[in-house]
Amino acid sequence: MPLYEYRCLDCGRLTSLLVRTYQPPESPLCARCGSTRLRRNITRVAVLRSEESRMDDFADPGMFGDVDENDPRSVARWARRMSQEMGEDVGDDFKEMVDQLEAGEMPEGMPGDTEEGDL
Question: What is the pTM of this model?
Answer without folding.
Answer: 0.42
